[in-house]
Design a protein that fits this description.
Elements lengths: L1 E4 L5 E4 L4 E7 L5 E7 L9 E4 L5 E3 L2 E7 L2 E9 L14 E2 L8 H14 L2 E3 L2 E3 L4 E4 L12 E2 L5 H9 L4 E9 L11 E10 L8 E2 L6 E9 L6 E8 L8 E6 L2 E11 L14 E5 L12 H16 L5 E8 L15 E6 L4 E15 L2 E8 L3 E3 L6
Parallel strand pairs: 12-15, 16-23, 18-21
Antiparallel strand pairs: 1-2, 1-5, 3-4, 3-24, 4-8, 5-6, 7-8, 9-13, 10-11, 14-15, 17-22, 18-20, 19-20, 22-25, 23-24, 24-25, 24-26
Length: 384
């Protein structure tokens, strides 16, 4: 059931619609598109709920079309999690330096700095978000040692923090239940629910032998791979006497601290001893560029290079249009879970995490397509 909510979170009832695209994602904020006849449009609608799913759609765009067969309205937007990107921190943050601080306290400190910290503007104080909470049922990683670049949006920073532990999060709205005030704020904030998918690789399978797939698309793209990074960080020449390289640029000497990053798993397959190189100029922030900070500077240089390498990494993915047979979406598996995919034609079996679920609701049915992250090959076995 698809329902609409007003700005105070009050139900406007079930929505009559033609088609709903509900796109859930594990490593970034998801989105939705809702198409309906104009006569069914609710003028007060601000949020959309999809029964059985934890996300809340935020109506950010309304489009009206008059066509030969009638008048139509399209509502679209991100899920409410996107509001977290309204906050950012002005300096780089290296959580590896926060010794003795729990994962929960690290996240809460970062949210406090970026979302609810009062900023002084010419017209007075302002908040990025009025209120936020960390849900008591959250599943948090044991360690968070993320390095967050200055100015990174809060929502994106949270995904970066959780990525090493294969975690994620979603948000539920915190509404104002007291509307008595003339200036009552409708949405007070966000409740952050941190999650981690289940390992179902020995439980949930997709493949022709299980009669639960309509289509499987496997992609391997090595065209952008750069496994070797030559990292350079400009430093003041008067402070560094050793361990730097120098070059004449525009009539003056420039000095760089030099380092390397090599990831063998990002090499082209079957190409011998081949390491395509990427020259990368880091922008270290948060430390004075002096020899006494060399270890910290080099650490941040490599962390920045690792993040950049994600844009030049081997792309390997599987997309599966699933049928509701044998294993059922939401009942047996969900976004973030690890499952197995068998491709009998090439005698390959993979395990991978569900990183995206594309739902299309129309004509009283739901079509589901799942996108899996980087697959890991496992031993293929024919299912009879």
């Amino acid at each position: 059931m698809i329902t609409g909510l007003n700005k105070f979170g009050e139900s406007l009832g079930e929505i009559n619609f033609i088609e709903l695209q509900w796109n859930r994602k594990y490593t970034e904020c998801g989105s939705f598109v809702l198409y309906m006849a104009a006569r069914d449009y609710m003028g007060e609608i601000k949020y959309v709920k999809n029964s059985g799913r934890p996300e809340t759609g935020l109506v950010q765009k309304v489009e009206y079309e008059k066509e030969s067969n009638g008048d139509f309205v399209t509502l679209s937007g991100f899920f409410i999690d996107k509001m977290a990107d309204g906050g950012a921190y002005m300096f780089a943050v290296d959580m590896a330096q926060w010794t003795g601080v729990s994962s929960k306290n690290r996240i809460e400190s970062y949210l406090s700095w970026t979302l609810s910290r009062a900023r002084i503007y010419p017209n007075g104080s302002k908040f990025n978000l009025y209120d936020w909470t960390v849900d008591r049922g959250s599943v948090l990683p044991a360690v968070i040692d993320a390095n967050i670049e200055a100015g990174t949006e809060t929502g994106k920073a949270l995904y970066n923090m959780l990525q090493p532990s294969n975690g994620s999060y979603y948000c539920t709205p915190i509404f104002n239940t007291n509307k008595s005030s003339e200036n009552a704020l409708p949405l007070l904030g966000l409740n952050f629910v941190f999650i981690k998918g289940k390992n179902l690789q020995d439980t949930v399978y997709f493949g022709d032998a299980f009669n639960n797939v309509d289509n499987i698309m496997y992609t391997l793209d090595e065209s952008a791979e750069k496994p070797l990074y030559h990292i350079l960080q400009e430093v003041p020449g008067d402070s560094w006497n050793e361990g730097t390289v120098a070059d004449m640029v525009s009539g003056e000497w420039k000095y760089w601290l030099e380092d390397w990053l090599r990831v063998d798993g990002n090499r082209p397959d079957d190409m011998g001893f081949c390491f395509p190189e990427q020259v990368f100029f880091s922008q270290v922030d948060g430390y004075e560029l002096i020899p006494e900070n060399e270890a910290k500077i080099r650490n941040q240089m490599k962390l920045q290079a690792q993040l950049d390498m994600l844009n030049r990494y081997k792309v390997e993915s599987i997309e599966v249009s699933v049928l509701q047979n044998r294993f059922y979406y939401l009942k047996d598996y969900d976004l973030g879970d690890v499952c197995s995919v068998s491709i009998d034609e090439i005698q390959q079996m993979f395990t991978a995490r569900i990183v995206e679920v594309k739902e299309v609701h129309s004509d009283n049915k739901v079509d589901v397509e799942i996108v899996l992250g980087t697959p890991q090959k496992t031993q293929w076995k024919k299912v009879l």
